[in-house]
Design a protein that fits this description.
The chain is an alpha+beta fold. It contains seven helices and four strands, in the order ααβαββαβααα.
């Protein structure tokens, strides 16, 4: 693997070892208070402006967190829409940017608990840049994921510890960590649950509307049947109104002539044929109603 050269010869040693010695007042504290950003060159260990610098020469404090800008990082640089492919650079304003990956670490071999000692040494060095929430050490890959409580601390630590040495190890490589924090995971879970609840509620409302429409159609058909019964109840038998045999089996009480009898039979045949068609139409309507 080709290792990147350090930025300067005096930055090979740990930058966190004398972080409090290099802090001091600058023009930002006296003239541009709460309107300036932190000095990226001070974090890297080679700012030549000193007290004349327009940016802060100190580590971010809790009172600085209220002046957070989502489009800018702690050094005033514009954040991007997405991360770089190698997870280097300034960062992404869509992510939390609270976690960084410390790569190319050297695990001590002369101790009984190398993993515990490595995490302890890493915490002592990285905690100087801000409050740490969690450290996940992966000994198989010689790397660790450090998650801070605020992105200001992670952005400052990334620049300060880049190309530095940790416990006599080689030059460190600091990258952004895409490990999802608990807050983001909880927000996504709540959003998925909200989507599922809304979809279920929408489905229930659609089923209720379908049931209401079916009940209204049944009521309309029943009302139509009742109306037909009331209309024909004065002239014919309501129970046999659709039965052709009711009309074909009718025999007059009085004797009539042969011609009148034939004419009456023809009329009865027409009535029976019409009743058969009417019965067929009503059966089709009844089948359509049952299918609905």
């Amino acid at each position: 693997m080709i290792r990147r050269p350090p930025r300067s010869t005096h930055c090979i040693s740990s930058a966190a070892s004398d972080v409090y010695k290099r802090q001091g007042y600058t023009r930002a504290d006296l003239m541009e208070k709460h309107t300036s950003y932190f000095c990226v060159y001070f974090a890297r260990g080679h700012c030549v402006e000193g007290a004349k610098c327009r940016y802060y020469h100190r580590v971010p404090q809790p009172e600085d967190l209220v002046y957070e800008e989502n489009a800018k990082d702690v050094f005033g640089r514009t954040r991007h829409d997405t991360f770089k492919e190698d997870l280097s650079g300034i960062g992404c304003f869509k992510g939390s940017c609270r976690s960084i990956s410390v790569c190319e670490m050297k695990v001590p071999e002369n101790t009984a608990t190398p993993a515990r000692d490595t995490v302890k040494m890493l915490y002592e060095e990285m905690a100087k840049w801000g409050e740490i929430e969690n450290i996940k050490f992966v000994p198989q890959r010689a790397m660790a994921n450090v998650r801070y409580t605020h992105r200001f601390y992670a952005e400052f630590a990334k620049e300060a510890m880049q190309d530095q040495s940790l416990g006599g190890s080689d030059v460190l490589d600091i990258k952004w960590c895409l490990e999802e924090d608990e807050d983001t995971a909880k927000e996504k879970e709540d959003e998925q649950r909200r989507i599922m609840v809304n979809a279920l509620r929408k489905k229930q409302m659609q089923e209720a509307r379908i049931q209401q429409a079916a009940q209204a159609e049944r009521a309309r058909v029943e009302k139509l049947k009742e109306k037909q019964k009331r209309h024909y109840s004065k002239t014919i038998d309501v129970d046999n109104m659709y039965n052709p045999a009711f009309y074909t089996g009718y025999k007059p009480a009085k004797k009539i002539s042969r011609e009148a009898q034939e004419k009456l039979e023809q009329e009865q045949d027409k009535i029976a044929e019409g009743c058969a068609k009417l019965n067929e139409v009503l059966q089709r309507i009844n089948s359509n109603y049952q299918n609905q």
